[in-house]
Structures
1.
Amino acid sequence: MRKQLIAGNWKMNGTIDETKTLLEGLLSGSFDSSKADMVVCPPFTALSYAGNLLKGSKIAVGAQDMSVHENGAYTAEISAGMLLTVGVSFVILGHSERRQYHAESNQMINAKAKVAIEAGLTPIICVGETLEDRESGNTETVIGQQIDGTLFEFSAELLNKSVIAYEPVWAIGTGKTATPEMAQDVHQFIRNRIAGIDKEAAEKIQILYGGSVKPDNAKSLLSQPDIDGALVGGAALKADDFLKIINSL
Ligand code: PGA
């Protein structure tokens, strides 16, 4: 049985005051950590604060991106090592907003994922098709390329230290969710593709669904056999909603 993982991608939201309110809200609630782990991914400026506040709690901290470089003349970049020093243990890589607005390629995401794992962080590697891809019947082609590219030269060992997130671009922040069946189909496709690298690792790897996950649709999505958790945007900004999602398991 794969354990579920519920991750909150705060995107560019969360001043220190807002982070305090949201995290205190989460800490005052409860969830069954034998069923699921919880991760919050605030913006860089709130990571240190979140790391301190959540130390010793059941809630882990993730970053939303990181540099492929270790250190040096890379203005505005943040390294894996820096993230570790403020209590970060996860990092989202290749989110569609990074791919779209910052031209992140599968190759770059692959390189970052290897650096993250080497440093001791768990990458949450994102893939997802656009509406155009889906409507032209290219979902599996695109997802297949993204999986092959982002997991290029991954061994079973690296797969065992990674998480995948399937986020159809057309479902992100739009209120449109893939039906549980549509999502399950792609999750199964991804798991089969990963089985081409290593069968055992494919059975173990967590594949999260993301795209307008809310308290009222979480249960039907999370009960699909190949959906092992959620990457939540909008609904992760309200403690009550995020707790309802993890408690819908
Ligand atoms: P959403 O975002 O839940 O607001 O659709 C999900 C994401 O982009 O990770």
2.
Amino acid sequence: MKSIPEALKVRGRAVRLARWNPRATPGCKDKDEAAERLAQNLARIDTLQYRLYGESRRSLLIVLQGMDTAGKDGVIRNALTVFNPQGCRVWSFKVPTPDEAAHDFLWRIHRAAPARGDVAIFNRSHYEDVLVVRVHGLVPRNVWSRGYKLINAFESHLHEQGTRVLKFFLHISRKEQRQRLLARLDEPLKRWKFSDADLTERTRWRGYQRAYEEALARCSTKYAPWYVIPSDRKWYRDLAVSEIVVDALEQMNPRLPKAKLDLKRLRARLAR
Ligand code: ADP
């Protein structure tokens, strides 16, 4: 059986989201198993981030994308909270401010890239410029279509400079989105999250799926892979993200600097 990172990684030049089942749970039997493994992964991430921070040479960038209600906030809360806030920052990218819009589209992104030793989590990202911008025709095709090449060059640059880039597309079905939007109306605690704009975006579902397919196909690279996370089942979504993060950090294998201490002498001094 393939590991979760292997099963969910996007390879090849064509992506058909219809072939990725959003309810699938490859590499995990059930919810109980997922809960157990998630707990283990969180403990592992805690230690590995500590080592990454101590090493202070490389960094980790986690990009979260998905349709409204796909669970970007949920993943941050359930699968990534374990990161020590000293050494981790979450960035949300919204409609560009006038200052941001006056610069090239990667300007605001690069400023948020993680410093050495740090983790950055992007809630939406530079990919909005080949997603919402494309679907809404905010700029002509010949402008947004150059984005893929620019994004690949940018991510390759980050990689060469020691940043590990992981990109997660949280894949939900249209039916599941309907349920989640209804839940936002039904549950008083969730109502604040409801926005009319979500319904407008929902009418553009196919356009978004096509835009995602192209972004995943053209920008899943060796140095910055995309993962399609089946996200109709939240427990699987959280497990899958945590597992891929652990796997990446384990491969990075950050090492704490060796302390050159004369323990005997120092203990003797502390004895006084
Ligand atoms: P979220 O849905 O992420 O919780 P909001 O409801 O504030 O937060 O939505 C942010 C909005 O900003 C989204 O509709 C997103 O498509 C939009 N957005 C992000 N980046 C860009 C961009 N570069 N150009 C236009 N719109 C963008």
